[in-house]
Specification:
273 residues, alpha/beta, Rossmann fold, seven-stranded parallel β-sheet, 9 helices, 7 strands, 14% strand, globular, binds NADP nicotinamide-adenine-dinucleotide phosphate, binds coenzyme A, DECR2-like, SDR_fam, NAD(P)-bd_dom_sf
Length: 273
């Protein structure tokens, strides 16, 4: 067993109250870090903070903010950093998604995903920079395969997440001299999550999805959390500006096969039945 001591780390997970991001926050808690989470919903924040405490976080706290509202986000992050003693690790993962054809969704639908995923990421980065413990802080953006692979009904997400990865790469340049590393993780399809429920909503679509992953299984939040632990550790001290798939090989081509099933789903077919 590999033992990783995170007891000296202060970790902030934005969008950390469900799914993959909550799994990341909980893994850091299990390894003894101080962990804070933020999202739009007070009950989800409260529930996550209770879980972080139960799992062994040296400190656990949370606050409500919508990443689209810079002022609220900044105040919440400043208060959290003050309570913890600055941030050593920040994970930026708040996002929204729904399948919708570009020619059919409303302009506001497209804008809502850009506002949450892309501008929200910029808001997080803009607000955290003065709060990072430098040198040595590690920042992680949670991206998506759509950043690299076009998919039917995902133009809004592709545009937003490609932008997220370019923010990551640009900030690696801007922040490197102060000893801050920043990387993106591209998760594959992760079991039990809202993202997968929205994009592969039937058992048949799910089956095709699993078959399309070279490693022949869905990922788990822990798979993504493990990569975050690595990026937060000294083992990754020379890695910055990287966009890292943690996806069982999905971006090697399988994801394109699943993209085709989205198209069938939208047309009312039952793929894989
Ligand atoms: P999820 O469970 O819906 O998690 C989204 C989190 O972000 C929740 O904590 C949500 O809490 C928060 N959030 C949403 N909108 C927000 C906003 N405007 N301001 C602040 N917080 C907000 O989704 P997930 O499927 O686990 O996905 C998590 C991340 O992984 C996303 O970045 C997604 O793009 C990426 N990803 C997922 C998969 C997958 O298989 N699921 C694959 C590739 C990439 P509230 O509702 O309380 O705000
Ligand atoms: N298809 C097409 N358009 C949709 C849609 C769908 N399934 N769901 C929402 N929209 C449109 C709405 O109609 C609205 O446009 P309009 O004002 O022109 O009618 C626009 O998107 C914004 O919707 P709204 O519900 O007001 O936004 P919100 O800020 O409350 O929620 C979402 C943002 C839409 C992204 C919502 O799905 C969300 O909160 N998602 C977070 C969880 C999630 O997506 N998890 C997976 C992460 S990968």
């Amino acid at each position: 067993m590999i033992t990783i001591d995170c007891s000296a780390l202060n970790v902030m997970v934005v969008g950390g109250t469900s799914g993959i991001n909550r799994g990341i926050a909980e893994l850091f808690a299990e390894h003894g870090a101080a962990v804070a989470v933020a999202s739009r919903t007070q009950s989800k924040v409260d529930d996550t903070v209770a879980s972080l405490k139960a799992l062994g976080a040296s400190k656990a706290l949370g606050f409500v903010a919508d990443v689209r509202n810079y002022d609220d986000l900044q105040v919440g992050l400043e208060n959290a950093a003050k309570a913890m003693g600055g941030f050593d690790v920040v994970v930026s993962g708040a996002a929204g998604n729904f399948p919708a054809l570009a020619s059919e969704m409303s302009p506001n639908a497209f804008k809502s995903v850009i506002d949450i995923d892309l501008i929200g990421t910029y808001h997080v980065m803009r607000a955290i920079y003065p709060l990072l413990n430098k040198p040595g802080a590690s920042v992680i953006s949670i991206s998506a395969p759509q950043a690299q692979m076009p998919m039917v009904a995902q133009a809004h997400v592709s545009a937003a997440k490609a932008g997220v990865d370019m923010i990551t790469r640009n900030l690696a340049n801007e922040w490197g001299a102060s000893g801050v590393r920043i990387n993106s993780i591209i998760p594959g399809p992760i079991e039990g999550t809202e993202g997968v429920a929205r994009l592969a909503p039937t058992p048949a679509a799910m089956k095709l999805c699993v078959k399309s992953v070279p490693l022949q299984r869905m990922g788990t939040p822990q798979d993504i959390g493990n990569a975050c632990l690595f990026l937060a550790s000294p083992l990754a001290s020379y890695i910055t500006g990287a966009v890292i798939p943690v996806d069982g090989g999905w971006l090697q081509g399988g994801v394109a096969a699943v993209a085709a099933t989205f198209s069938q789903l939208l047309q009312g077919d039952n793929p894989g039945a």
